[in-house]
TrEMBL record:
The keyword Disulfide bond does not apply. Keywords: Hydrolase, Lipid degradation, Lipid metabolism. Transmembrane segments: none annotated. Pfam families: Patatin. GO terms for molecular function: hydrolase activity. InterPro entries: Acyl_Trfase/lysoPLipase, NTE, PNPLA_dom. It comes from Dyadobacter sp. 676. This is Patatin-like phospholipase family protein. It comes from the Bacteria. Residues 5-163 form the PNPLA domain. The active site is at 38 (nucleophile), 150 (proton acceptor). GO terms for biological process: lipid catabolic process.
Length: 252
C-alpha cells in the first residue's frame, strides 16, 4: 500500500506538522510521497530529505528566521524571502528534488495566470520558498517563467497531486477554521481572509483524505508564533498520538 502525506500551509502553525510526523513515525507510518504547500512545503522538504522530526524541531529552534527576511518597500510585498535560500541550502545543500529520499510535490500559485503550479523535479529551494510567499507580505518570486506566491491561495491542502498515485492519504491540516485568539496584525487578517475564502474547497479536499489530522489546539496560535515552536510541535504530536491510540483502525 502506497501512503501519501499532505501538509497544509499555516505560517508558524506549520511547525505542528513536525509533531504530527513524530507521532506517525513512532507508529511505523512513513509516507511514500509527500504533497505540500507554503510552510508545509518547508517542513515537507526536510522530512523528504530524511531528517527525523526531532532534528527538524531543533533546526527551527536554532534558526532565527527574521534576519533573513529583507524589507522590500516599494515592491509588491513588504519583505523578500530570497535570503532564506541561504538557510534552506544549509539544510539541503544539494538543493534539488532529486536529492530527496521521499518524492515531494510542492504547490505554488502563479499570481499572473491565476493557476496552480506544481514542482517535483529540479531546483528545490526557490519553489519551496515561493510557495511560502503570503501575498501582501512577501514579494512574489520569479521562477521558471512564473510569478509565484503562496500555494495556499488556490489550494491549501494539495491532495490532487497524489490522487491515483497513493492508496492511503493522510492530511495534516494546521489552519483551523475557528480561532480562539484575536487577529492583531493586518497581515494576519489578510491570511485569515485567504483561509476563509478557501474554506469550501478545503473541506472538499479534506473529504478525500483517509485520515485527517487537525489539532484543535492550533486555534490558539498565530501564523507568526515561530518562537512557540515547542508548543506547536507538542500540539501536533499529542493530538496525533492520542488519535492513533484511540483509533488504531485508522492506520494504513
Amino acid at each position: 500500500m502506497k501512503t501519501a502525506l499532505i501538509l497544509s500551509g499555516g505560517g508558524a502553525r506549520g511547525i505542528a506538522h513536525v509533531g504530527v510526523a513524530q507521532a506517525l513515525w513512532e507508529r511505523g507510518v512513513r509516507p511514500d510521497v509527500i504533497s505540500a504547500t507554503s510552510s508545509g512545503a518547508f517542513v515537507g522538504a526536510l522530512l523528504a530529505y530524511g531528517y527525523e522530526p526531532a532534528d527538524i524541531l531543533n533546526m527551527i529552534r536554532d534558526t532565527s528566521f527574521y534576519p533573513y527576511l529583507r524589507f522590500g518597500i516599494g515592491t509588491s510585498g513588504l519583505l523578500h524571502l530570497r535570503k532564506m535560500e541561504d538557510v534552506f541550502c544549509k539544510f539541503i545543500p544539494e538543493n534539488t528534488f532529486e536529492a530527496l529520499k521521499t518524492p515531494l510535490i510542492v504547490t505554488a500559485t502563479d499570481i499572473i495566470s491565476g493557476e496552480e503550479v506544481r514542482f517535483r523535479t529540479g531546483e528545490l529551494a526557490l519553489p519551496v520558498l515561493a510557495s511560502c510567499c503570503i501575498p501582501g507580505l512577501f514579494s512574489p518570486m520569479r521562477h521558471e517563467g512564473h510569478d509565484l506566491v503562496d500555494g495556499g491561495v488556490l489550494n491549501n491542502l494539495p491532495v490532487e497531486p497524489v490522487l491515483g498515485e497513493a492508496d492511503y492519504i493522510i492530511g495534516s491540516h494546521c489552519n483551523p477554521f475557528n480561532l480562539d485568539k484575536p487577529l492583531k496584525r493586518t497581515t494576519e487578517v489578510i491570511y485569515r481572509s485567504l483561509i476563509l475564502a478557501m474554506h469550501i474547497k478545503t473541506k472538499a479536499r479534506i473529504a478525500k483524505c483517509d485520515l485527517l489530522i487537525e489539532p484543535p489546539a492550533l486555534s490558539r496560535y498565530s501564523i507568526f508564533d515561530f518562537r512557540k515552536a515547542d508548543q506547536l510541535f507538542e500540539a501536533g504530536y499529542k493530538f496525533t498520538k492520542a488519535l492513533l491510540n484511540d483509533r488504531p483502525d485508522l492506520l494504513p
